[in-house]
Write a structure and sequence with these properties.
Largest sheet: 8 strands, antiparallel
Order of helices and strands: HHHEEEEEEEHEEEEEEE
Distance between the termini: 133 Å
Shape: elongated
Strand content: 15-25%
Radius of gyration: 38 Å
Length: 264
Amino acid sequence: MFIRYQSISRPFLALSGLTGVALLFYWFFAVGDGTQTVASTQSHATAGSKESPGQGRANSSEDEQYQRVLSHAEGSATPKGKIKDALGRGQWKLNLYEDTGDKVYDRFKLDRNRDDVWDEAWTRKADGHWERDGDGKRLGGSLAPAQTAPAQAQPVPLEPAQVPAAASGAESELLAPSLQAGMTELRSGRAKEARVKDFNRGKGPKLSLYDDDGDGRWDRAKVDHERDEVWDEKWTHKPDGTVERKSEHSGAVSVLSDGKWVGK
């Protein structure tokens, strides 16, 4: 009897042991591995939800960027002043310029990808809207110029012979000291080559001189006040010796007289 029980219990115990080992393997590889997979999935999901630096700003629409630009361009300006990088780091680079002394910005330039190359130049028009140079795109046309003075009654016009000089509409502006040497060279210097690329040699405004017909007389010049690779003025040396200036931004034309630019 003992022998029969012993012969039956031994296989039974061996089978039970194998079953236990199998269950342990199942728990380790199936249940344990599944827990690891869930944790791994949650980790990847958390990592994927993190936004890369600057991504929020990059996703802002172009219209929103232009509205930021417009809000600064419509602000009050310092007469003859200039603001560099008005929007700050992480946004489009915006430079604002007040050229006429009326405390209203007259033009601005944009470097959209901050690669130190200006992508757009804009000019404020007489009705207050902004227009992009090159393609005429408009911005803020429905907005009035900042600090527009209230309309006033027009005075009774004087007889032509009685109109004083100040009422003729001509405005004068002194020739900048940093450009006086270049003006002297343009008017009386001897051109020994077809072009002088940078008369001021890296100091002050960039001034380029041109002898277009090779007759040894300078015919014209161009001025880049901020050295930002965008020409601001064009000077033309007339045959009679006078010099005429044209703004590359507003198109205004003036003539040099007694050291002053006088509007035409």
